[in-house]
């Protein structure tokens, strides 16, 4: 996988210092195994796994730290775990967990990551899945269990970057 030069990771000051000392860029963390990250960052196995997942997911075209964090929030740490997933079920699960319905572009991002996990196609961005989502929702609608409140009602302006 081609790595992005600029990714964002929620590293502690100590973790950043460890990387500087070893002359390793954040963007290169995706190239290390999680066991190696434990040593490089002086972190627990769980922390190394999370950092590796966040770096990996941000290397999908048009995916940033916020959505990478959403994937980890749902319990995904590798692209293999996302292969053959149902994007509509992923967004439904996500909305149930957060307790509100989210901007439709988030569903497009789920569609992109599943597509990427299956194909490693770097030519697509999340907005390439907007029409697919619209057609799916026109035919199938949303589940009755979908939360009633929208992200902008719950989060206000802070939720507009989703």
Kindly list the characteristics that best describe this protein.
single chain; 52% helix; 162 residues; mainly alpha
Task: Outline the structure in words.
With 162 residues, the chain is mainly alpha-helical. The protein has 8 helices and no strands. The chain has helices at 13-21, 34-41, 45-58, 65-73, 87-98, 104-119, 130-140, 151-155. Helix 2 crosses helix 3 (45-58) and helix 5 (87-98) packs across helix 6 (104-119). The longest helix has 16 residues, at 104-119. It is globular. It starts with 12 loop residues before the first helix and ends in a 7-residue tail after the last helix. The mean pLDDT is 94.
In brief, what are we looking at here?
With 162 residues, the protein is mainly α. It is built from 8 helices and no strands. It is globular and about 55 Å long.
Query: Count the helices. How many?
Result: 8
**Biggest sheet, in brief?**
none
Low-confidence stretches: none
- Mean pLDDT comes to 94
Class by alpha and beta content? mainly alpha
Q: Into which percent range does the helicity of residues fall?
A: 40-55%
User: What would you call the shape?
Assistant: globular
Portion of residues in beta strands equals: under 5%
């Amino acid at each position: 996988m081609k790595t992005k030069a600029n990714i964002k990771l929620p590293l502690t000051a100590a973790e950043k210092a460890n990387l500087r000392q070893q002359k390793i860029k954040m963007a290169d963390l995706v190239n290390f195994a999680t066991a190696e990250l434990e040593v490089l960052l002086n972190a627990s196995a769980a922390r190394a796994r999370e950092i590796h997942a966040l770096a990996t997911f941000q290397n999908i075209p048009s995916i940033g730290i916020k959505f990478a964090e959403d994937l980890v929030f749902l319990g995904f740490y590798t692209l293999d775990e996302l292969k053959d997933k149902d994007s509509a079920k992923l967004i439904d699960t996500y909305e149930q967990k957060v307790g509100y319905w989210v901007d439709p572009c988030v569903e497009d991002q789920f569609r992109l990551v599943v597509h990427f996990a299956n194909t490693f196609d770097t030519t697509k961005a999340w907005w390439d899945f907007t029409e697919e989502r619209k057609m799916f929702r026109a035919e199938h609608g949303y589940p009755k269990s979908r939360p009633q409140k929208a992200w902008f009602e719950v989060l206000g302006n802070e939720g507009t970057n989703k």
